[in-house]
Amino acid sequence: MPDAAELLAIAVEIVREAGETARRMRVEGVSGVTTKSTDTDVVTAADRAVERQVVEALRVRRPHDVVLGEEYGASGARERAGDVRWILDPIDGTVNYLYDLPQYAVSLAAEVNGQVVAGVVRNPATGAEWTATLGGGAYKGGERLHGSPRAELGQALVGTGFGYDPARRVHQAGVLHGLLGHVRDIRRFGSAALDLCAAAGGQLDAYYEKGLNPWDHAAGGLVATEAGLVVAGLSGAPPGLDMVVAAPPALFKPLHDRLAELDAAGGP
Ligand code: IPD
Ligand code: CA
């Protein structure tokens, strides 16, 4: 089993260099903007450049590992038991990046046998960086994270996000409509990885979203888990495409039950 601390050290080094590329390319002006799944799902030259840079850097340091990236998919050897699979979102929060809103992140996680063992999320615009290793705790800039102590859903500040598919958004709006009267307020910051890290640090009391891909939640999910949050889907499902809920243990059940009532994991 590869050492999680060693994998994290490699990830941090690579993400700092790649984050600098994203930051520099933002200062120079966003270019190469195209769309993916829908007209509002954008990808920029920086998303592609950051992904290529991270993949190349991993190739040099860990030539036998598999890499799954948002923009170019899987690369490297065919995965066997015990191999390391890196999961990369080169820029999480691409719409924020496009609009020069300083809320985007490079997110890189190392997974072994389907379990994330190390992860780093870095906001290149602010320099904030979150790290975690499995069983080793979650940190922001050296400070250990413990999530929010809040236990009442009615007092909870809850983060969420929306997909790019209009039909999915209509369903998500219905869920929001049913939740808003039962929480302190809602935040939509625009980067799932940073939302999970915010929940890990208690800047949000909890977070939920339907439709996340592995690269959106792999690293941030470990940061939240290691900060003591429960990170799961609905009705005992693992966190995934249908739903990711991240909440401190006391808040998890009331938020989970409300979301289940609203069929938050359902719809398109
Ligand atoms: C998106 C962001 C956003 C979330 C979307 C994601 P991208 O990722 O994380 O906050 O609401 O579901 O797709 O497209 O910026 O990498
Ligand atoms: Ca992305």
Describe the structure.
The protein has 268 residues and is α+β, with helices and mostly antiparallel strands. The chain has two domains: 4-144, Fructose-1,6-Bisphosphatase, Chain A, domain 1; 153-261, D-Maltodextrin-Binding Protein, domain 2 (3-Layer(aba) Sandwich). It contains seven helices and 15 strands. An eight-stranded mixed beta sheet has the order 4-3-5-6-7-8-9-10, sandwiched between helices. α1 runs antiparallel to α2 (45-61) and α5 (192-200) runs parallel beside α6. It is globular, with a radius of gyration of 17 Å. Calcium ion is lined by residues 47, 70, 89, 91-92, 94.
Arithmetic mean of pLDDT: 96
Main sheet: strand order: 4-3-5-6-7-8-9-10
Helix % is 25-40%
Order of helices and strands: HEEHEEEHEEEEEEHEHEHEEH
**How many E-type strands?**
15
CATH topology of the largest domain: Fructose-1,6-Bisphosphatase, Chain A, domain 1
Assigned CATH class of the largest domain: Alpha Beta
Which stretches are low in confidence, meaning pLDDT under 50 for 5 or more residues running? none
Task: Report the biggest beta sheet as strand number plus sense, adding barrel if it closes.
Answer: 8 strands, mixed
Name the shape in a single word.
globular
Please identify which CATH superfamily of the largest domain we are dealing with: Fructose-1,6-Bisphosphatase, subunit A, domain 1
Total of helices? 7
Computed CA radius of gyration, to the nearest angstrom: 17 Å
> N-to-C terminal Cα separation, in Å?
39 Å
Quote the beta fraction.
Answer: 25-35%
Bound molecules: D-MYO-inositol-1-phosphate, calcium ion
CATH architecture of the largest domain: 2-Layer Sandwich
Structural class: alpha+beta
